[in-house]
Amino acid sequence: MATEAHAERAKSAIGSRGITANTVTPGAIETDFLGGAVREIPHYNQAFAGMTALGRVGLPDDIGPMVASLLGPDNRWVNGQRIEVSGGQTM
Fold first, then answer.
1. Is residue 12 part of a domain?
2. pLDDT of residue 5
3. 90 is a domain residue
4. Environment class of residue 8 by beta-carbon count within 10 Å: exposed (0-12), middle (13-18) or buried (19+)?
5. Measured between alpha carbons, how far is 13 from 63 in angstroms, rounded to an integer?
6. What is the CATH number of the domain that holds 69?
7. How many whole angstroms separate alpha carbon 42 and alpha carbon 57?
8. In a domain, 14, yes or no
9. Which of 9, 21, 58, 82 has its CA 20 to 30 A from that of 66?
10. In whole angstroms, what is the distance from residue 17 CA to residue 53 CA?
């Protein structure tokens, strides 16, 4: 959780300049991480899908829009937060 600690410190250090600092924590996503295991190995994909409330693993397009909205003016008051974007994944 080093990134969370960094965001916690940064929110105060740069907040006075109107800059926010947050962390986004995705669940299992079909990417190249771990050699694409979640995407390429069916039993990994099924196992992680079974851990989510939505019944599937995430796709990059599930994360990008949330990050984009976080950067927009509608979320200018969100600062120092850990935002989980995981489809309701439990470990």
1. yes
2. 73
3. no
4. middle
5. 27
6. 3.40.50.720
7. 11
8. yes
9. 9
10. 38
| Residue corresponding to tokens 């989510």 | 52
Domain count, the chain: 1
Six-digit token pair at 45?
């994909």
Tokens linked to 33: 């991480």
Does residue 91 form part of some domain?
Answer: no
Report whether pLDDT(3) > 90. no
* Token pair listed for 50: 């079974």
pLDDT band at residue 88 using 50, 70 and 90 as cut-offs:
very high
- Range of the structural domain that residue 74 is part of: 2-85
| 58 in Cβ contact with 27 (< 8 Å) | yes
Contact assessment for residue 85 and residue 63, using Cβ atoms and an 8 Å cutoff? yes
Task: Summarize pLDDT for 26-73 with one digit per residue, the tens.
Answer: 999 999 999 999 999 999 999 999 999 999 999 999 999 999 999 999
